[in-house]
Design goal:
alpha+beta; single chain; 2 domains; elongated; two-stranded antiparallel ribbon
């Protein structure tokens, strides 16, 4: 049997029997010898896109989460910040959100980063751009015929700066 990995795009061929496949390779698929390893699919590209997007993004020197929960929270905070700016909140006001404490966002290294409303709007824009960049790169890969076997390599994906 040949084994290849679905989720990373890395096709590693080895001679294995189904019972020999270690538990850590649960996302691998066995292909009988003599049959070709399937070409990457759009769904595999989508999985890689989602994995990379969820790794987070950089903003003002810090890295922030971007999983489903973070996306929802960033979207909500950005909307609140926009409303605060439209209501006249000035730059530097860290209590723009109506609370009794300064507003901050916690980065991946667990540091509270203070943000005024104008910064939160830029933060939301950066988050949206992070997602859009990955969606567009994935679309470009899926438009290729065939999809490159090394589609999961960094060279195909946006660099977060």
């Amino acid at each position: 049997m040949n084994a290849y990995r679905l989720s990373s795009g890395e096709h590693r061929i080895s001679h294995l029997e189904p019972h020999e496949l270690p538990a850590e390779y649960a996302d691998w698929v066995l292909v009988p010898e003599g049959l070709p390893v399937p070409k990457p699919t759009s769904e595999e590209v989508n999985t890689e896109r989602d994995r990379r997007t969820a790794l987070g993004f950089k903003f003002n020197g810090a890295v922030f989460d971007f999983d489903i929960r973070a996306k929802t929270n960033i979207s909500g905070a950005s909307q609140m910040a926009f409303m605060a700016v439209m209501a006249g909140v000035q730059e530097g006001n860290l209590r723009w959100h109506g609370g009794n404490e300064d507003f901050s966002w916690i980065s991946q290294d667990n540091t509270a980063i203070p943000m005024d409303a104008q910064t939160v709007i830029k933060f939301g824009q950066k988050a949206a751009n992070h997602e859009t960049a990955h969606v567009l790169k994935a679309r470009a890969l899926k438009n290729m015929d065939p999809i490159p076997e090394d589609y999961a390599e960094d060279k195909w994906w946006p660099k977060d700066e």
